[in-house]
Amino acid sequence: MAEVLVYVDHVDGAVRKPTLELLTLARRLGTPVAVALGAGAGNTAAQLGEHGAEKVLVHEAAEYAEYLVVPKVEALQAAVEAVSPAAVLVPSSAEGKEIAARLALRIGSGIITDAVDLEAGDEGPVVTQSVFAASYTTKSRVTKGTPVVTVKPNSAPVEAAPAAGAVEQLAVSFSDKATGTKITSRTPRESTGRPELTEAAIVVSGGRGVGGAENFRLIEELADSLGAAVGASRAAVDAGWYPHTNQVGQTGKTVSPQLYIATGISGAIQHRAGMQTSKTIVAINKDPEAPIFDLVDYGVVGDLFEVVPQLTEQIKARKG
Amino acid sequence: MSLRIVVTVKYVPDATGDRHFADDLTVDRDDVDGLLSELDEYAVEQALQIKENADDDVEVTVLTVGPEDAKDALRKALSMGADKAIHVEDDDLHGTDAIGTSLVLAKAIEKAGYDLVISGMASTDGTMGVVPALLAERLGVPQVTLLSEVSVEDGTVTGRRDGDAASEQLQASLPAVVSVTDQSGEARYPSFKGIMAAKKKPVESWDLSDLDIDADEVGLEGAWTKVEEAAERPARSAGTIVKDEGEGGKQLAEFLASQKFI
Ligand SMILES: Cc1cc2nc3c(=O)[nH]c(=O)nc-3n(C[C@H](O)[C@H](O)[C@H](O)COP(=O)(O)OP(=O)(O)OC[C@H]3O[C@@H](n4cnc5c(N)ncnc54)[C@H](O)[C@@H]3O)c2cc1C
Ligand SMILES: Cc1cc2nc3c(=O)[nH]c(=O)nc-3n(C[C@H](O)[C@H](O)[C@H](O)COP(=O)(O)OP(=O)(O)OC[C@H]3O[C@@H](n4cnc5c(N)ncnc54)[C@H](O)[C@@H]3O)c2cc1C
């Protein structure tokens, strides 16, 4: 069966969940071969093998952390040349999309970004995208070269599928283009201890209605009672109440959790673009006319300062 | 020394309008009002700030690839303060994909002459966020993208890229391709004076032959991707809406329990 390359997003060897989802999709198209780069790459093999990777191509080099994007492109290109895959799948992060695009151009292939589903087809993979703030669903194909597709988090289940996970060293030689943009310093984000926003099963978001940074405590308490990630609208982020990394929407993160709870958020098109594919949507808003209510499975018209604490208390009581 | 900045700006259908697909599964640009992609205003703004803060001569050229009406996007950028504009327009461009768009933009940027290209973080219609990386690849210059802070000094561009896992400081020599996010600083509104001045600023029009691009390299036929189906997402079925009369939180908890979330 044809091999399918999966680009591995990992932090010092710990594979992030979207990559495991890609392995599920890759198995629909052929035999998954993973590509893991940078410090700790060798430690990914066990986890990748458990989820279907037959082979794990590994390359560790300082360049991956010292220069932006291009070293990764060159490694992935080397992997494509070594394996001649039927398709290349990359997680749809900001960096993932940049890597995928440059790779596509180098190998003379079309690219489709932000897939939410993927199936095998007679003429290559059929890719589902959710576009125009999720008001349309499209099905597309790459018609030239080896299809390069980036896939959004939460687009497929993580499945156990034991495979060899055999580690092979990937031979990569960097061109002078690889070192064009130097990363002169890096400040890692502090972990909040909460789930990653794009990967979380439940997201609780606050908007302008939350009214201040200190009030976000209410949102965090609700989130913690559910084991959820915390999101924010751009209005809340622009006001400085919550970090931009937590923004949901067109210029923030796209989330597609099982449950999305919007509190004090009106539901502007740019916000909806980031959450409209959530399975169940709940809103708390004091304005019965707020557009967010057009999307909800359950809505409470009321003051969030009354409703949210009561809800948190109820959840805690029920969970005992 | 002088610095030539080319800002790439896209003309897009208004996101608050009713966007849809035409019969050939390309974006319907006839029925919906178009405008300068809001995220490209940030790119224009940063170019203007670099110009204002520089001791040298800086020339800001705005470049769009798009239909006749895309001139509106150029006018807006000119009225914000850009010096001149280039409009690449050709019937054969209809339906071009990201790879093709980057070819046309790269050829136009080379023809215009540049030291620095500044793009938006993503368009508000295609939202791919790949064109700046593709431009860097095609032009063979460093990619310094997704910056929330940018500065240019002595032939070097530096900036801050706020990623998911870390915030990074980047540095590269010019020429380079930069993209800026909506965190890079509020874009200015065109002043009345700016709007009047824009009317006199030069707008050049180029077609594919001016750029030595064959029609079969671009457009729907030349695309390396193909949209086969586009379906409007069914409206979500109307949910239950309750008014809080003291029990709203409780009722919501019951709903969540009934859905097995608690
Ligand atoms: C190019 C572009 C990109 C954008 N990207 C994003 C993006 O990524 N994400 C994003 O969110 N926005 C984005 N926006 C902004 C978007 O258009 C809206 O301005 C924003 O989403 C509004 O945030 P909000 O709903 O929190 O605020 P508002 O629209 O002001 O809504 C606040 C809501 O809170 C309710 N409320 C107030 N007090 C209470 C209370 N005590 N209890 C209950 N409810 C209360 C009000 O009834 C109101 O509905 C973008 C805009 C542009 C132009
Ligand atoms: C809903 C939708 C989905 C699409 N999906 C795909 C896909 O999966 N694969 C594919 O190959 N094509 C796709 N396309 C086509 C693609 O959007 C266009 O080819 C487009 O010109 C480039 O992609 P973008 O708009 O997403 O740009 P982005 O990469 O998001 O744009 C980033 C920046 O590049 C600059 N820029 C982009 N386009 C232009 C332009 N025409 N003129 C000047 N500057 C510009 C701007 O500075 C912009 O801020 C899609 C289009 C739509 C509407």
TrEMBL record, chain A:
Electron transfer flavoprotein alpha/beta-subunit N-terminal domain location: 4-187
A GO term for molecular function: flavin adenine dinucleotide binding
Co-factor requirement: FAD
Binding-site positions, FAD: 208, 233-234, 247-251, 264-271, 285
InterPro entries, sorted: DHS-like_NAD/FAD-binding_dom (IPR029035), ETF_a/b_N (IPR014730), ETF_a/FixB (IPR001308), ETF_alpha_N (IPR033947), ETF_asu_C (IPR014731), ETF_asu_C_CS (IPR018206), Rossmann-like_a/b/a_fold (IPR014729)
GO biological process: fatty acid beta-oxidation using acyl-CoA dehydrogenase
Chain segments annotated as transmembrane: none
Top-level taxon of origin: Bacteria
Gene3D superfamilies xref list: HUPs, TPP-binding domain
Signal peptide region: none
Family: Belongs to the ETF alpha-subunit/FixB family.
Assembly mode: Heterodimer of an alpha and a beta subunit.
Known role: The electron transfer flavoprotein serves as a specific electron acceptor for other dehydrogenases. It transfers the electrons to the main respiratory chain via ETF-ubiquinone oxidoreductase (ETF dehydrogenase).
Protein name: Electron transfer flavoprotein subunit alpha
